[in-house]
Design brief:
328 residues; alpha/beta; Tyrosyl-Transfer RNA Synthetase; five-stranded parallel β-sheet; globular; binds tryptophan; aa-tRNA-synth_Ic; nucleotide-binding; protein biosynthesis; Trp-tRNA-ligase
Length: 328
C-alpha cells in the first residue's frame, strides 16, 4: 500500500508557470510514489471576495489544467473540496479545539487581515480569514496522510495542523499521523518577470510579470523577451542576478536539465539569444499543454464525480471515528 499524500490548491486566480513548475510538476513525480489526494480548495477561495463567475471559471480551469499537465485521475484522487461536505463538518470539530490566540497569531492571517475591502465597500476582517487554517487542518486530517505538500508560505498552517492532531489524539483517542511537510525543492520559487525579487503570482495586477498557463503562447514569448535582467549581458548563476537566475531556472525546469547544465549551455550567449531560447521553450510548452487542456476540459465533470466518491469514502470514516471519540 502506498503512503498517502494530501495537496490542495486555491482557485483564486489563473495558474501561472510558477504554479506549474513549483507545484504541479512536482506532483507528477509524487503521484508515482504516493497515493495522492489532490483537491481544488474552493471553500478556501471564498474566504476573500470573489464573483460567482470568476470562481466557477477558475475552479474548472484549475481542474482541467491538472488533468492536462498529467495528473492521472486513475492513480490520484482529484476532486473539488466543496464536493465533499465532510470538509466543513470536520472544520467544526477542529475549530472547537483551537483558540483565538492560536489562530490570530498566524502570519498569513496578520498579513491579509489588515486590508480587506468587502463587497459593500467597507473594510473589515472576514471571519473566514481567521478560520482558514482550521479548514486546512480539516482538509488534511480527514485523509490522515503521511505527507502534505504546500508552498513555503503555508508551513505554519501545517505546523498548527500537527498540534491540533496531537490534541485530538489525546482528547478523543484518535490516531492522526504527525504529518510531514513536503516543499518542492528546485523551481519551488519562480520569480516575477518584471520584478524578479518577488514570487511570480497568480494575483499580480501587472500581467507582464507572470506567464499564465493559458496565455496565448505568442504573448508569453514576448513576455519572456521583455523580462527584466541586468546590464552585464553575461549568463551565469548568481544570487545577485535574480532576473537571469529566474530565466535559467525556468529553462532548466522545462527541459529537465540541471541549473548548472543550463548555465553551460548559455555561457557564450548574449541576453538576446538567451531570452529567445527560453521564450521558445516556454512557447512550445504552453502550446502543447493547451492542446491537452482543450481535451481535458471535456472530462472534468466525469473525473470530479469519481474523485468526489473516492474522497468521500475515506472522509466519512474519519467523521464516524471522531464523532465516536467526541461522544456525538
Ligand atoms: N492553503 C493552501 C494554499 O493556499 C491550499 C490548501 C487548502 C491546502 N487546504 C490544503 C494545501 C490542505 C495542502 C493541504 O496554498
Amino acid at each position: 500500500m502506498k503512503e498517502r499524500l494530501v495537496s490542495g490548491i486555491q482557485a483564486t486566480g489563473k495558474l501561472t508557470l510558477g504554479n506549474y513548475i513549483g507545484a504541479i510538476k512536482n506532483s507528477l513525480e509524487l503521484q508515482e510514489k504516493y497515493q495522492m489526494m489532490i483537491f481544488i480548495a474552493d471553500l478556501h477561495t471564498i474566504t476573500l471576495p470573489i464573483s460567482k463567475e470568476e470562481l466557477a471559471k477558475n475552479r474548472e480551469e484549475v481542474f482541467a489544467l491538472y488533468l492536462a499537465s498529467g495528473i492521472d485521475p486513475e492513480k490520484s484522487i482529484i476532486f473539488y473540496q466543496s464536493d465533499v461536505q465532510e470538509h466543513t463538518t470536520m472544520n467544526w470539530y477542529v475549530l472547537v479545539n483551537t483558540t483565538m490566540g492560536e489562530l490570530s497569531r498566524m502570519t498569513q492571517f496578520k498579513d491579509k487581515s489588515n486590508k480587506v475591502k468587502l463587497e459593500n465597500g467597507t473594510y473589515s476582517i472576514p471571519t473566514g480569514l481567521l478560520i482558514y487554517p482550521t479548514l486546512m487542518a480539516a482538509d488534511i486530517l480527514l485523509y490522515n496522510p503521511k505527507v502534505v505538500t504546500v508552498g513555503i508560505d503555508q508551513t505554519q498552517h501545517v505546523e498548527l495542523t500537527r498540534n491540533i492532531a496531537l490534541r485530538l489524539n489525546k482528547k478523543y483517542k484518535m490516531n492522526f499521523n504527525n504529518v510531514e511537510t513536503h516543499i518542492p525543492k528546485i523551481g519551488a520559487k519562480i520569480m516575477g518577470l518584471v520584478d524578479p525579487t518577488k514570487k511570480m503570482s497568480k494575483s499580480n495586477s501587472n500581467l507582464n510579470d507572470s506567464i499564465f498557463l493559458l496565455d496565448d503562447p505568442n504573448v508569453a514569448y514576448k513576455k519572456i523577451l521583455k523580462a527584466v535582467t541586468d546590464s552585464e549581458n553575461k549568463v551565469y548563476i548568481s544570487e545577485s542576478k535574480p532576473g537571469i537566475l529566474n530565466l535559467l531556472t525556468i529553462y532548466s525546469c522545462l527541459t529537465d536539465t540541471t541549473l548548472e547544465e543550463t548555465e553551460i549551455l548559455f555561457k557564450d550567449k548574449n541576453y538576446k539569444e538567451f531570452k529567445e531560447a527560453v521564450a521558445l521553450k516556454v512557447k512550445e510548452f504552453l502550446t502543447d499543454l493547451q492542446s491537452k487542456y482543450q481535451e481535458a476540459r471535456k472530462k472534468v465533470n466525469y473525473w470530479a464525480k469519481i474523485g468526489q466518491n473516492k474522497a468521500q469514502k475515506i472522509a466519512q470514516n474519519t467523521i464516524i471515528e471522531i464523532k465516536k471519540g467526541m461522544g456525538l
